[in-house]
Amino acid sequence: MISAEVKAKLLQSLSIHQTSAQWRAVSGGCINQSYRLSAATGDFFIKFNHADKIEMFEAELEGLQALRQSQAIRVPEPLTSGCDEQYAWLVCEYIELHGRNDSQAQARLGQQLAAMHRSTQSGFGWHRDNCIGSTPQINHRQAHWADFFCQSRLADQLQRLQRFPWSRDLLRKGEQVLPVFHAMLENHTPLPSLLHGDLWAGNYAVDERAQPVIFDPAVYFGDRETDLAMTELFGGFSTDFYQSYQESWPLDEGYRVRKYGYQLYHILNHANLFGSGYASQASNLMDRILTA
């Protein structure tokens, strides 16, 4: 529970008088404490974490700004981040979110995501590192996609797994997968697209006008297929979404195999965050790559 003293500091930074402020705990992911702050000047969504997470929130703020600059999909406006000795916080506009299963909304999301992916830069990565969940995500820019993804995504997650005794068999198989998947990507030359980076169903909803809203990003520039692969991993996206995306910007045949490597990144991250329950799924994805 966030203390009244910390809340008072944040209100002061926002120039909000305490007597007009109403706090209500809301859902905001599994790693933060989140609140809806209602005041005379409007409503705000605020996430708190330990003070040492300030760089995570600063990077998220910049990521939300980058997604908004594409002007493709609605993204909560990030307002400020800060910290004191105990807590770090991120303040965004509050959006009333609703269910996401309407076929028209899913189709709009597919079209808008394809438009967002047309925002590009030179090279793969980003100007700063950020986080995927609470795991540091390395974004050092590289010219070649195969090098970037295999080094800064797969190899980095495998290295983080070395601290777990249960990971030995998975690490041995991972050593076989890295050169095989690198070879798969060598002749694949995607544009460096602006990516959400963590696009599962929990990071998408619709607003009061049934317009898609995406949030909690792990932004970088990379192969657009990685966002699509993530949407397939845990479900929650309809055929309307995929059909609309394909009509806007079709994927080529190679995606059906490459997606296993892109999904492997997220499953390895889940194994690092939540434990050995994800080892079997990671191993199965590795087998699909090795036998493709």
Summarize the structure in words.
With 292 residues, this protein is an alpha+beta fold. The chain has two domains: 4-93, Phosphorylase Kinase, domain 1 (2-Layer Sandwich), CATH 3.30.200.20; 103-290, Aminoglycoside 3'-phosphotransferase, Chain: A, domain 2 (Alpha-Beta Complex). The chain has helices at 4-13, 54-69, 103-117, 145-161, 168-186, 225-234, 239-248, 255-274, 279-290, and strands spanning 22-26, 33-39, 42-50, 78-83, 87-93, 130-132, 135-137, 193-195, 204-206, 212-214, 220-222. The strands form four sheets. A five-stranded antiparallel sheet has the order 1-2-3-5-4, covered by helices on one side. Strand 9 (204-206) and strand 10 form a beta hairpin. Helix 4 runs parallel beside helix 8. The longest helix is centred in the C-terminal third of the chain and has 20 residues, at 255-274. The chain is globular and about 65 Å long.
List keywords for this structure.
2 domains; alpha+beta; 292 residues; 9 helices; two-stranded antiparallel ribbon; globular; Phosphorylase Kinase, domain 1; Aminoglycoside 3'-phosphotransferase, Chain: A, domain 2
Concise account of the structure shown:
By secondary structure, the chain is α+β, with helices and mostly antiparallel strands. The chain has helices at about 5-15, 55-70, 105-115, 145-160, 170-185, 225-235, 240-250, 255-275, 280-290; strands spanning about 20-25, 35-40, 40-50, 80-85, 85-95, 130, 135, 195, 205, 210-215, 220. The strands form four sheets. Strands 1-2-3-5-4 form a five-stranded antiparallel beta sheet, covered by helices on one side.
